[in-house]
Amino acid sequence: MSKFKLYKIIFYSIFFLIFENFTALSEESNFIKEYKLLERADKLYLYSKYVKAIDLYNEILKHTENEIIKIRASFKLGKAYYFQRKFQKSEKYLRQVIESNIKFKDIVKGSRLFLAGIEERKGNYANAINMLIPLGQKRDYYSFLANRKINRIISENPEKNLKKNYGLIDFYIVQRDYERALEIIDLFLSEKPTEELLYLKAKLLFNKGKYGEALKLFDSIIKSYPKGKHLNNAYYYKATIYAYQNKLDDALSILNSLSLTPNIMLKRAYIYGKKGQKDKKIQEYKNFLKKFPVSFQVTYVLFNLGQIYESDNDIKSAIYYYRYLIDKYPMSRLADDVIYRLITLYKKIKDEEKIKSLKKKLIENYPLSVYTYYINGYKLFINKEFDLSMDTFLKDERE
After folding, report:
1. With the C-alpha atoms ordered 101, 102, 106, 112, is the resulting torsion angle positive or negative?
2. Does residue 174 lie within any of the structural domains?
3. Which of 68, 173, 197, 268 is most solvent-facing, going by the fewest CB within 10 Å?
4. CA of 304: how far to CAs of 17, 252, 282, 342, in Å?
5. Count of CB atoms situated within 10 Å of the CB of 69
6. How many CB atoms lie within 10 A of CB 275?
7. Sign, CA torsion 48/50/54/55
8. Mean pLDDT in residue range 26-45
9. What is the pLDDT of residue 1?
C-alpha cells in the first residue's frame, strides 16, 4: 500500500470520528436546550400560568425528537388543557401518553386518572371506571385514588348498575376490599353461576375466615365440576379448612389423594406438626427440598428446619440449615433473622471467630435490620456509652 493511500485512510478515519463526535455533541446540546425549556414550562404550569406553559409545551413538541421529553410534554400539556377545561384537547394528549410504550408508569397512571375525570364529565361512567381499573394492579397511591373515585362514581349513579363489571372483582381483591368484590360476584352469580365465580367467592370467604361458608362452596365446585380447572384447588382448600378445624386425618387423606405440589407438601408438614409428629414433619420438609429445590418456598423450609433443630438444642443441625439459607439465599427477607440466630448458636458453643464474622456481615449487609441496631446498641452499652446505646436501641422504633 502506498503512503498516499495510507494517509488518505487515516484522514477519512479522523474526519468521520470528528464528525460523529460533533453530531453526538450537537444532539446532546439539543437535549439540554429542550430539557431546560421543559423545566421553564413546568415552572409556569406549577404557578398555574397555563396559557404560557401550553405555548412552551407546544413549542417543545414541534421540535423535539427525544421520546422522553415528548411524553413528558404531552402529559403536562394534557393536564394544562384539563385545568383550562379544554377537555377535548386534554384527552388528545393524555391518550397519546397511554398509547405510547413509555416506561414511566407514574406518567401513564396520572394520565389514566385525568382521562377518567374527562369520561366522567362526559357522562361515560362505565368508561371512567374501565380507565381506572388498571390502576388497581398493586396497592399504591394511584390505586388508593382510583378506589376512592370508582366508589364515588358508583354511589352517585346507583341506577346505572355500574358494579356489574368483571374488572372490578380483581380490582377490589387486590385492594383487599373483599366485601365489595363479593357483592359484585353475587351480582353475576344471580344471573349465571360458573365455576370461576364460585371458586372466586369461596376463596374470598376463606380469606375472610368464613370457613363454614367457604367449605360449602368448595364442596359444590367438587360436585358440580368434577373435571373443572379448579377441582384440585377446591380439594386443597377443603383439606386446609379441615386442618384448621382439627380434622387432621380427613385433611391428610385429601392431600394424599392429590398430585404433589409445593403447597401440598407444606400443608402436610403443617398437619404433622399439629399432630405432634415432629419426625414426619422434618422428613416432609427434607423431601420438599429434594422434590422442589428451586421453589421460592425453599427459604421458608430451611428456616423452619433450623427452628425445629434449634428448639431441640441440636445446634449442629440448626447451624447447618441456617448457614445453607444465608449462603445460598443472602437476599432472602429472613437472612438478617437467620444471621442473628446463628450468632446466638455460636455463643452456645463459644466460637468467637464465627460470632465476630457474622456480626460484621450483619452490620455491613443489613444496616437497617433491627438486629443490627441491637448489636450496635449492646456494644455501646458495654462501653458505658449509655445515651448513645439507648438512642441506637430505640432508633428502629422511632422510624
Report:
1. negative
2. no
3. 68
4. 62, 20, 9, 14
5. 19
6. 14
7. negative
8. 78
9. 52
What is the residue range of 261's domain? 193-290
Number of domains in the chain: 1
CA quadruple 266, 267, 273, 277: dihedral sign = negative
Phi then psi for 351, rounded to 5 degrees? Answer: -100, 85
For residues 181 and 172, give the distance between their C-alpha atoms in angstroms, rounded to a whole number: 5
Instruction: Answer whether residue 91 is part of any domain.
Output: no
The C-alpha atoms of residue 133 and residue 136 are separated, in whole angstroms, by: 6
Of all helices (H) and strands (E), which one includes residue 326? helix 315-328
Nearest to 151 by CA among 136, 307, 198: 136
Closest by Cα among 122, 129, 124 to 90: 122
Least confident of 61-75, 268-282, 364-378: 364-378
How many Å apart are CA 321 and CA 299, to the nearest integer? 10
Compute the CA torsion angle 59, 65, 71, 77 (nearest 10 deg). Answer: 10
Q: How far apart are CA 341 and CA 318, in angstroms?
A: 9
Quick check: 254 and 242 in contact, CB under 8 A? Answer: yes
Higher-pLDDT residue of 235 and 377 is 235
pLDDT, tens digit, 9 for 90 and up, residues 111-145:
999 999 999 999 999 999 999 999 988 888 999 99
Instruction: Give the whole-angstrom CA distance, residue 233 versus residue 160.
Output: 36
* Per-residue CA distances from 32 to 40, 102, 144 (Å): 12, 20, 36
Cell triple for residue 260? 404433589
Which residue has cell 385545568? 83
pLDDT of residue 15 exceeding 80, the answer is no
* CATH number of the CATH domain containing 235: 1.25.40.10
In the structure, what pLDDT confidence band is assigned to residue 376 with cuts at 50, 70 and 90? low
- Is there a domain that residue 156 lies in? no
The predicted-structure confidence for 227-279, as pLDDT tens digits, reads as follows 999 999 999 999 999 999 999 999 999 999 999 999 999 999 999 999 999 99
- By CB neighbour count within 10 A (0-12 exposed, 13-18 middle, 19+ buried), where does 145 fall? middle
* Position with higher pLDDT, 24 vs 92: 92
- List the grid coordinates of 191: 344471573
**pLDDT number for residue 377:** 54
d(CA 135, CA 152): 16
The answer to the question of residue 45 being in a domain is no
